[in-house]
Amino acid sequence: MNKWICDDCFNVLPTLDDNSVDLVFTSPPDLFDIGTEDRQVYEAFLLKALKAFDRIIKDGGFIAMCQTDRKMKGTVYSKHSVIIQLMESLGFILKDYKIMLVNSMDSKDQYKFSYQHLCVFTRRGTISRKGEWTKQIFNYKLAKSKSTYYIWNENFCKLVINTLSKENDLVVDPFAGSGVVIQAAKELGRQYLGVEMNKETYENSIVSNSII
């Protein structure tokens, strides 16, 4: 496999065989990333993505999604709760749940929280909980991209990949951004598929990583 592609993941994921992926590890785009503030539109987008993950993941594989909830229009949109409900509706169980801190706990950001939710889903997979994974809260320094999103710490990515997959397994990040998940998968001896549709982000990732 071992591909790093600039495209829409909804064009790429249908090319994968059913039950062929060991780990999907990603962060779904935010509402504003897809150009909407309409929750119904956004949740339809999420469901489309999760159904695509459902088709390609092995029964014993894992889908790990890390995301930040959103403050909007005077309310809190609990994105991680929506994802949990949608995944359970597709027959998955929430196997593990962690909090990952974003650099500053005293952030004055009016719209985003200073932590992310790591939700790990499976149908039949088992997790060996040991070492760093036994912690409930992770504190890895995140870098800030040239735009607005945070780039996950490489050590955080390696922890998730090492815990939820083994050597030569196929790791897929459909919303790959900077490509840090795919870079970590490559360094850990996994097969990988990364997809990023933003051309500038994709080209910057090639400069900063050695994915290809």
Overall geometry comes to: globular
Number of β-strand runs: 12
Beta content comes to 25-35%
Query: What's the story with the biggest beta sheet?
Result: 8 strands, mixed
Q: Remind me, CATH topology?
A: Rossmann fold
* Helix and strand run: EHEHEEEHEEEEEHEHEH
**Structural category:** alpha/beta
Please give the radius of gyration in angstroms: 16 Å
Structure annotation, total helices: 6
| Euclidean distance between termini CA atoms | 12 Å
CATH homology group: Vaccinia Virus protein VP39
CATH top-level class: Alpha Beta
- The oligomerization state is single chain
Low-confidence stretches: none
Spatial strand order of the main sheet: 1-12-11-2-3-7-6-8
CATH architecture assignment = 3-Layer(aba) Sandwich
Mean pLDDT: 91
Percent in helix: 25-40%
Q: How many discrete structural domains? A: 1
Question: How would you characterize this protein structure?
Answer:
The structure is a single chain. This protein starts with a strand and ends with a helix. The protein has one domain: Vaccinia Virus protein VP39 (Rossmann fold, 3-Layer(aba) Sandwich), CATH 3.40.50. It is built from six helices and twelve strands. By secondary structure, it is an alpha/beta fold. An eight-stranded mixed β-sheet has the order 1-12-11-2-3-7-6-8, with helices on both faces. The protein has a two-stranded antiparallel sheet with strand order 4-5.
